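User: Predict the structure for this protein chain, please.
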Amino acid sequence: MKKVRSLIRRATLMVPAVALGLYGFAAAPLHPVYAACSAPSMDYGSASQTVNISAAATYTVWSHLMAPDATNNSYLLEVDGTCYTVGDAAIPANAWTWVNYKDGNTSSPVSINLSAGSHTLKMIGREPNVELDRVLFMSDQTCTPTGTGDNCTTAVDVTPPAVTVTAPAANATVSGAVNVTASATDDTKIAKVEFYVGTALKATSTTAPYSFSWDSTTVADGTYSIQAKAYDTANNTATDSIQVKAANTDTSAPSAPTNLSAKASAYNKVDLTWTKSTDNAGVTAYRILRNNVAVTQVGNVSAYSDTTALPNTAYTYQVFALDAAGNVSPGSNQATVTTPSTPDSQAPTTPAGLSATAVSASQINVAWSASTDNVGVAGYDVYRSTGTNTASKVATVATTSYGDTNLSASTTYTYYVVARDAAGNSSQPSATVTTTTLAKQSNKGKGGVHGHVTTTSGQTLTDATIRVSYGGVKHIYTTDSSGSYSVSDVPIGTRTFKYVSHGYVAQRYGIGIRDGVSVTKNVKLNAR
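Assistant: Here is the predicted structure, written as structure tokens:
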């Protein structure tokens, strides 16, 4: 018996190299194989195959036959227990011919409704010397196969779609009616998107944008999985899921925010800060009132800048906290401020008392006395030069010190500082100060620390300072534009590192310094 092989291409099944008749089939009775087909009077061989249909449809069966003469020109085809006599008329002798009819009636096609999945196919010899080359199951009713029949085959779509749950946000706290949305794409076409909460199917959407409204009040408070499952037209699938927290029975309001302060940092800007509230489930937002009218709502933060203020105007601010269930706290204390009467055109005073101390072969610490301003100093620009080169700005900091790192050993550097206010007014440059880095020393018995400094929400802090003392000297480092820092040449042992940034709670860490090793330490600072 020749080996039976199958090739499934979407809606088409090919079964090549099956020979019936005088091609080495066993002469033993084949009654157990025939099933629904009646046993022929003689054994002309048989073959069976389990095939997989990818999509439910009506299929026309085409058989590639060679008949030895006008009498012997058919075979028995059994599909899932139903028997068909294929051919039996109008087949040329000794020529490979595609036949799609049964019982000798050329107008009676072999047409079968097949579901997606596995099906049993049997081919049974009925007459001598009849050869069968291929069997095609075709959902395309318009195509007539030629040659090997490849003209009627198409590639199988095996590429799954892509799906993403776009709302609500992952790990969000939700309540009431929740709008659940998903995006789905495919190389052909999306058939549908199913939405599940837990394992329960809640909705099916067939057109973009794919969405449904989930009534979260129908479940107990707690954490739930929301899943979107996308199907393409070939029944390929893909899923995406998120976790959310339902909070509908929370009736406890947050505590009142405290320590609200208001500062007019410009003629049209008021900076607010406060101490955060507490809540049994968690504060999600703060509502800010100005003169008893709500002007904005911000997230779970402790500061806000009102840039819609008018010049020479008195304002009274108050802040309220909200939780996910919509409970509103009592109001904070009221903070009153009056903005300047005209745009700020007054520059800060010149920084004084500038000093520069070389603390290693690669670092100089620069410090100065604070400037004053009619509204407030916003920051300091630090300038550096070497030799006869023109000075360039190397840092902008909110504090009165700066650790300049990655310098060359035994090199003389000159510094000066300029103060700026929020309106962009700049002071006169400070007096210059010059110092020389230490000579390069052996790194034996020394190590370092490097990493990033961010807020707890992941925002980069570009003006954070890192302070560590050893050898009787305070060493100061500053994060760069990406929030990165690098501390080197620190003697081995446990050293206390202090991380500071304006408006954030300072953090201290004891870090073990090892010989020749640079330790990674990423730090997140909480807002005040």
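Residues 258-338 form a domain with the Immunoglobulin-like fold (CATH 2.60.40.10).
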